[in-house]
Write a structure and sequence with these properties.
Layout: H1 17-31, H2 42-66, H3 75-83, E1 96-103, E2 111-113, E3 118-120, E4 127-130, E5 134-136, E6 142-149, E7 162-163, E8 170-175, H4 188-197, H5 208-218, E9 224-228, E10 234-240, H6 247-256, E11 267-272, E12 274-287, H7 292-310, H8 319-326, E13 331-338, E14 349-363
Parallel strand pairs: 10-11, 12-14
Antiparallel strand pairs: 1-6, 1-8, 2-5, 3-4, 3-7, 4-6, 9-10, 12-13
Helix pairs in contact: 1-2, 3-4, 5-6, 7-8
């Protein structure tokens, strides 16, 4: 179901001030037929005030009504709506960074910094954990590992410099990059989509929608999911989560392997969707005597929105769609240099526009 195609509920009405004012004037004329409203008339001023007040009240009633519908509820209203379906807004995703761990000297035996060891910053206010065992074999002096910051954000420049439980053989800890690849709190659009998917959560047959719902729950960075089967008993799950590492696959596997999610006979194969990069190179032919710069901006905005909707696993890229995005009011024709043909995308792939080169020129109907 495409929730964006559902019309706004009829209970939400649209009003304008002039219509409401005219209604109030007409009501007065029913009692005083000879009254002719004029500028400065005290009764007219009172009716103008009434019309303004009614506009605000009706707008408030509309906002109250929106809170009761999945398509229009937002913020905390949508959170409360989600409670009925056992769904919570995702807090976000924690960013990661690569760290280097150095020993004070070469050792004659193997040592290890265990997975999930906590690290803190100099002030002791921020912490994170190591996502994998850091094993130093005989002769090793340094190793690198991924560290996850214990904070829901997209990125952070905080540096974790100390192990919370000191190890005598660890001499130095160095951040090789800033924390990145995280995500902030889930937005309304994503939560709405998951509420719809959650209706399949109680399925015991391992439906496609059930697997999708629990995959999205695993991490807020997941933007799209494809679920299908080619062999009975084997479920293929492909996900698109930009700038993510392999640890997200572990979280998805854990989410989908719960007893109330995965049928006993299902074997899960979970992986990232293969990214197919393409370039859009086109020229817009804009009618003369138009504001070419504004038309160009409108075309680019339309293209960006259209590409966002096309950024789905298994979605083909067609020239007709790209043409529709760019051919806004004022554009006579769109001439494509790239792509030349339709891009056919498999069920385990996703097409990503890596760059856009859009020019424009004035269309002269005389030639």
């Amino acid at each position: 179901m495409d929730i964006n195609s559902i019309k706004i509920p009829d209970v939400i009405k649209q009003y304008d001030y002039e219509s409401l004012l005219q209604y109030h004037i007409d009501e007065v004329k029913k009692i005083l037929p000879d009254w002719k409203p004029s500028e400065g008339d005290l009764m007219l001023i009172e009716k103008q005030a009434s019309a303004f007040r009614e506009m605000h009240l009706r707008a408030e009633f509309n906002e109250l009504a929106r809170a009761f519908f999945l398509t229009t509820a937002k913020n905390s209203d949508l959170d409360n709506y989600a409670v009925f379906y056992g769904v919570e807004r995702l807090k976000g995703s924690k960013p990661t960074a690569t760290y280097r761990f150095e020993l004070s000297s070469k050792l004659e035996y193997e040592v290890m910094i265990p997975k999930d060891t906590l690290m803190i910053d100099d002030g002791g206010t921020k912490q994170g954990k190591i996502l994998e065992d850091v094993v130093f074999y005989i002769g090793d002096e340094q190793k690198e590992a991924l560290v996850e910051l214990d904070e829901y954000c997209q990125a952070s420049d905080v540096e974790l410099t100390t192990l919370q439980t000191p190890l005598p053989y660890v001499y130095r800890i160095e951040a090789l990059e800033e924390f990145g690849g995280g995500a902030t709190k889930e937005d309304d659009e994503s939560l709405r989509k998951r509420i719809l998917l959650s209706l399949a959560d109680k399925s015991t047959a391992g439906s496609e929608e059930t697997y999708k719902s629990y995959t999205y729950k695993a991490d807020a960075k997941i933007e799209d999911v494809s679920v299908y089967s080619l062999i009975p008993g084997e479920v293929l799950v492909y996900l698109y989560a930009p700038n993510s590492d392999e640890h997200i696959l572990e979280r998805v596997h854990k989410s989908l392997s719960a007893e109330d999610v995965r049928p006993l006979t299902d074997k899960l194969v979970i992986n990232f969707a293969e990214e197919i990069n393409y370039v859009i190179d086109a020229t817009l032919k804009i009618f003369e005597n138009n504001d070419s710069a504004q038309i160009y901006i409108n075309a680019m905005d339309s293209l960006d929105q259209g590409l966002k909707n096309l950024e789905k696993i298994g979605a083909d890229i067609t020239l007709s769609e790209l043409n529709d995005f760019l051919r806004v009011a004022g554009v006579k024709e769109v001439v494509f240099t790239s792509p030349k043909n339709r891009l056919t995308i498999a069920r385990n792939q996703i097409a990503i526009c890596s760059s856009k080169k859009i020019n424009y020129e004035v269309y002269d109907e005389k030639y």
